[in-house]
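The methods section describes the discrete structure representation at length, but only in general terms. An entry of this sort, consisting of the sequence and the corresponding backbone structure tokens, reads as follows:
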Amino acid sequence: MALTATACTSGQPTGGQGGGSATPAAAAGGPLVASGKDTYSRGLADFSAKQMVQTGIVANGVVGDHPDTTLGNFDMARVKRTIDIVTPIFAAEKKPVRPGLNPTDIATNEFIDPRIGLPA
């Protein structure tokens, strides 16, 4: 279900899924429609980033039981637990996981820069 936003003639943002209800885009302010094409304003980007951090959708990594300061890295023990959980599920669906599948077969931290992370 998509959430849409447009600017009405008063210049105030409107939109959403049921009339003029407030949307995250409306709360962020800024131009929501330019020249008939949707735009992604700086205000909307800032609002979205803040919401993702506040709700925990985006966070620095967790290695073992301890948070770390890196954004986007994999904890191979968690990947292994995921493989262990889904293996019988996929087998029951007649889509077995490759025998001996290791976390490093499906995930890597090779291209992750450990200096990049969200502020504490």
User: Anything to note?
Assistant: The chain has two domains: 5-55, 62-106.
